[in-house]
Amino acid sequence: MLKPTQVFSPLAEQLEPEGAFVYLDLAAEARRKGIDVISFGIGQPDFLPPREVVDAVKEALDRGFIRYISTLGLPELRERIASYVSEKYGVDVKPTEVAVTVGAKAALYMAISLLTRPGDEVVVQDPAFPTYECVVRHAGGRPVFVKLREENEFRLAREDVEREIKDLHRVRGIVVNSPHNPTGAVLSESDVEELIELAKRRNLFIISDEIYEDYVYEGRHRSFLQDPEWRDYVVYVSGFSKTWALTGLRLGYVVAREEVIRALDVFATNMYSCPPAPLQYAALKALELGTSWFKSYLEEYRRRRDAAVEELGRIPGVRVVRSRGAFYLFPNVRELMGRLRVGSTDELARRILFEAGVVLLPGTAFPLRGGDGYLRVSYVLPIERIREGFRRVREWVEKVGG
Ligand SMILES: Cc1ncc(COP(=O)(O)O)c(C=O)c1O
User: Do 121 and 33 share a domain, yes or no?
Assistant: First the structure.
């Protein structure tokens, strides 16, 4: 008989580990075997935020800000986020429409759980950040996958969503992410407007994960908050992990109508009481400094993307879209798999790791079928390492592919 600590809730079993982390462990194993690994696996920036931001944490600790604070975050930080987002997107967000959360991930977890009722259908991009579909299922909902098409630069198209939900009667919302992990796709202004138009017509919520909003290399990022009726349809999620390279601080935020924020307050109270107090002073400092310092990093990341696209183009059997955002590329390796007679994307990624010493995540780590035959490249490495990494892959392909 199973012991009671061996029996888990079927709802908890809807949650799955993140494939990306599996590859971090595999990379560590390869390094232990003496392989000099170049990793395109990790999804976090490689620069440091301004010194003052980190110093603000130390100061907060020295001043004894180590007690519980308000569940929704420091009032002055909520105020600062409201004015920052308002100015950024020309909207009018009130501090009561902001919640500070433990990373964008907790924000997504709570927002999806709050709006998805048992039996509801929720549209999720395929491929996508794995959390979305896990949490929809965890909430008792059913993810409806809409495949992103390479011919459309992996942008979520209204007509594709419409086709998928045409005959469904319990569709409640769409989880959308632009700029997009894992493809780097950026929705255009008209893509965003068309998706909002569909949401209004079908009375759907849009949970918009805009964590990569500042990583856009061509054109401008269009936020779902820019719709005048955002309060009725949109829950906006962002945070400090990517723009400020503060992934370990675990600070995110939500902008939504006040009732949503009040409901998130109850969620967060039961889960973590409040996001870590001293770290919020760093976030406050980050917003005070603004993002002008970030421009030079953005330029550098654009150069890296261009170098990666150029190098990928030299590998036989690989085709890549020059994605406009985030720090990801999503090369198509189907032809390469055929040439090498490799049975699965996962097998290809493992062989590239152990035989060429390069970590590229299999697209299938971003469920479900949409990533099959693709690899995710995270180009958060110096240009020489990027070139070296893809040179190794090319030489390996030339060697084993005959
Ligand atoms: C699309 C997307 N959303 C959310 C997150 C998580 O952000 P945070 O570190 O703020 O929890 C990530 C991190 O990789 C991501 O890629």
Answer: no
My answer on whether 301 and 274 are in the same domain is no
| Domain co-membership, 122 together with 226 | yes
* Residues 165, 81 within the same domain: yes
Judge if the beta carbon of residue 275 lies within 6 A of ligand 1: no
The reply to whether 149 and 163 lie within a common domain is yes
Strand-pair category, 328-329 with 234-239: unpaired
For residue 130 and ligand 1, the question of a CB distance below 6 A is answered with no
Cis amide prior to 50 (ω within 30 degrees): no
Beta strands in 210-312 (DSSP E): 234-239, 251-255
The residues near 37 (Cβ < 8 Å, ≥ 6 apart) are 27, 30, 31, 353, 357, 358, 359
- Note the pTM of the prediction, 2 decimals: 0.96
* Residues 363-391 pLDDT 10s: 998 877 789 999 999 999 999 999 999 99
Residues 317-329 have a mean pLDDT of 97
How far is 137 from 117, CA to CA, in rounded Å?
Answer: 10
Q: Which residues of 119-132 are buried (b: 16+ CB within 10 A; e: fewer)?
A: ebbbbbbbbbbbbb
Please, which residues bridge with residue 254 across strands? 99, 237
- What's the domain range around 219? 67-289
Ligand 1 atom closest to the CA of 247, numbered from 1: 9
Specify whether 75 is located in the same domain as 90: yes
